[in-house]
Specification:
Layout lengths: L2 H13 L2 H8 L3 H15 L4 E4 L2 E4 L1 H28 L4 E7 L4 H15 L3 E7 L2 H9 L5 E6 L12 E9 L1 E6 L1 H4 L15 E5 L1 H4 L3 H10 L5 E5 L2 H9 L5 E4 L10 E5 L7 E8 L6 H10 L18
Parallel strand pairs: 3-4, 3-5, 8-9
Antiparallel strand pairs: 1-2, 5-12, 6-12, 7-10, 7-11
Amino acid sequence: MDLRQLRYFMVVAEERSVTRAAARLHLTQPPLSAQLARLEHELGVTLLIRHRRGVDLTEAGAHLLDQARRLLADVDAATDSVRRLGEGRVGRLTCAFVSATAWTVLAPLLRRYHQDRPDVAIEFLEDHPDGVVEHVRARRADLGVVHLPPPGVGASHDPDLDVAVVHREPLVAVLPARSAADGVPDRVDLARWAGEPFLSPARATWGGLRPHLLNACRLSGFEPTVSEVQLVQTVMSLVGAGLGVSVLPASVRALAGPEVVVRPLNRHVPVVETAVLRRGADQVSPQLAHFLRLALATPEPDVLQPEHARRGS
């Protein structure tokens, strides 16, 4: 007895006619009758009583119909769940990230991912940059999202990890609004504020941004005095109060109130790069593969494996 025989039998039982069942199954009548006879022979019982108007079920046939419906429904459900899992439409994805990436890069990506894969459970591990790298390296996370240090500044990532740049944004000067009244140009020279305290969000919460601030100041010819606070929102509040200045990614414009002005720099400095990390040697799950396809659907270079590159690249 195989599933095909059960499906044939179920259709015949529902139609109460071999002729109508054959039409529904897109078969001719002789092979369908042969399959039914083979099924009865294998079970050693009569399942159908044939007459001029069609067929009736025996007691054994009625029992088999109930069992066949239940069994075939389970098979269909199992087939569907296996297919959905294989396509990455169900399952689990664990993402480690630093706080600074959550609202600029990660949130839009996760919004698109959830729209495409609403039944995939997403788990989060929020940590400092080294913690994110360790979560990915130790397989506690499928992927990590971090800010990369400026070129030539800071240690490179574990060579066992693949790194893909998925977002770039320029640095800007964050200044008290009173600076605008003092004739601040459209593009500013950080050296003008060399004597001011520079405020930076803490590495533990917004890790990866302090090296960019230091690098920008050094390229402008001075070593800044840096004070750390926990959150970028605190940086903006303190700058607005006139207690210092800062250098942050351009997306902080969304947080700038009336007490703060944001200006581009007049000197070229490296942009802030946000990257996705994954273990290079591991097989990519379907859930992760779809996330990578979304993350790499950007103007940025694709540096992960070719199968995850955006279409048309």
